[in-house]
Structure formats: structure tokens, C-alpha cells
Amino acid sequence: MAIKSVSIRIEEEMLNKIAYIADYEGRSVNSQVLVLIRENIKTFENENGTIDGNIIPASNVKPTRK
User: Fold this and answer.
1) Hey, CA dihedral for 6, 8, 34, 51, is it positive or negative?
2) How confident is the model at residue 66 (pLDDT cuts 50, 70, 90)?
3) Average pLDDT, the chain
4) CA distance from start to end of the chain
5) How far apart are alpha carbons 23 and 9 in whole angstroms?
6) Most CB contacts within 10 A, which of 2, 22, 43, 54?
7) 45: Cβ–Cβ under 8 A, 6 or more apart, which residues?
8) Can you tell me the distance from the alpha carbon of 28 to that of 46, in angstroms, rounded to the nearest whole number?
């Protein structure tokens, strides 16, 4: 499995809070974010079915607000 890098913009207060939680759990911020992403995917798939590997983002993402 390939590992990809993603940059995000995040409010400083939110970053400080996630860093606090990560430290409390004995993780880095990066690892904590990965835990949250995995939990979100698991919840989504439990509610909506397994996501297959052939995702076409344009047809699977809600349109942006105008």
C-alpha cells in the first residue's frame, strides 16, 4: 500500500486541542488524525456499505456550496 502525504489548513485552537488529545492518548498528531479518519471510514461503511477501491471522486462527493 502506497503512503501519500496530505497538507491541511487548520485553525490553531483546533490544532492545539487535537495535539492535547494525541498526547493524552500517547500518539503524534499525525497518528491521531489517522485514527479519526479510520473511525470515520468505518462508521460510514457500517451505515452505507463497503467503499470499493474504484472510487470516482467527482461522483462520490457532494457539490460545494455556492
Assistant:
1) negative
2) low
3) 87
4) 36
5) 20
6) 22
7) 51
8) 27
Give 38's pLDDT tier (boundaries 50, 70, 90): very high
Is the pLDDT score of 42 beyond 90? yes
SS3 66: coil
For residue 27, the model assigns a pLDDT of: 95
3-state secondary structure 2-51: CCCCCCCCCCHHHHHHHHHHHHHHCCCHHHHHHHHHHHHHHHHHHHHCCC
Q: Which residue has the cell 503524534?
A: 28
